[in-house]
Amino acid sequence: xxxxxxxxxxxxxxxxxxxVVLRDIDFNVNAGDVTCIIGASGSGKSTLLRCINLxxxxxxxxxxxxDVDITDRKMNVPEYRTKVGMVFQNFNLFNNMSVLENCMVGxxxxxxxxxxxxxxxxxMFLEKVGMAPYINAKPRQLSGGQKQRVAxxxxxxxxxxxLLFDEPTSALDPQMVGEVLAVMRTLAKEGLTMxxxxxxxxxxxxxxxxVVYMAGGVIEEEGAPxxxxxxxxxxxxxxxxxxxxxx
Length: 247
Ligand SMILES: Nc1ncnc2c1ncn2[C@@H]1O[C@H](COP(=O)(O)OP(=O)(O)OP(=O)(O)O)[C@@H](O)[C@H]1O
Ligand SMILES: [Mg+2]
Hints:
The chain is of the alpha/beta class. It is built from nine helices and ten strands. A hairpin with a 2-residue loop joins β4 and β5. The protein starts with a strand and ends with a helix. The site of adenosine-5'-triphosphate has 11 residues, from β2 and α1.
């Protein structure tokens, strides 16, 4: 690929009233990168992902998608979100729709695909996440791990360039975490570009190629997983990791 910078976050800040939640955030995402964002509760991880997906409007700074500033008001937001999709902690499935309909609706409404084609694509990704046997089920009939796998299939069905994950396993019972992480490992191996907010440190260490540690709304430290987990430079990073890696 001639141009590998998919996203560039430049001097991004976000305030809610007087509360400055993100300050001067800067990092790049290249094609195929798996970037894990780690940090304590309240450090601004979700707000950062929500800014990248335009669920929040940055207060200052730029988010460049292939060098186009998406914070520009003329952006077509639904179209942008087909390229930069998001998977949420609480799945956000449409509860009145079946598994299959959940994975078709965006393709039909936003990508303007024919139903038959949307169904074919939906089935392909439902098979990939192991949820093809459940196409007629409603979300309430599924376990948390199954719901999250459907949510991932739904996001993949839009054939995004980048997928953002906000703590995709933290609403799950422990025995279901593995099945969702296994799907994400496969996606990483296949070269999908992902930005993942997670408290799963072993996963971040093994699967990512870039780790961003946030504290108090700033990037405190970032680098290769071997450096962040094996040789953190800052005391705050060491203390955070010591709390999360124990046991
Ligand atoms: N819509 C909002 N209005 C006001 N303050 C907000 C809003 N959303 C987030 N905040 C504040 O921004 C700060 C960062 O929140 P954020 O949810 O981004 O943290 P986080 O790192 O994702 O935390 P967690 O690990 O608990 O999910 C918090 O102090 C939070 O109260
Ligand atoms: Mg959060």
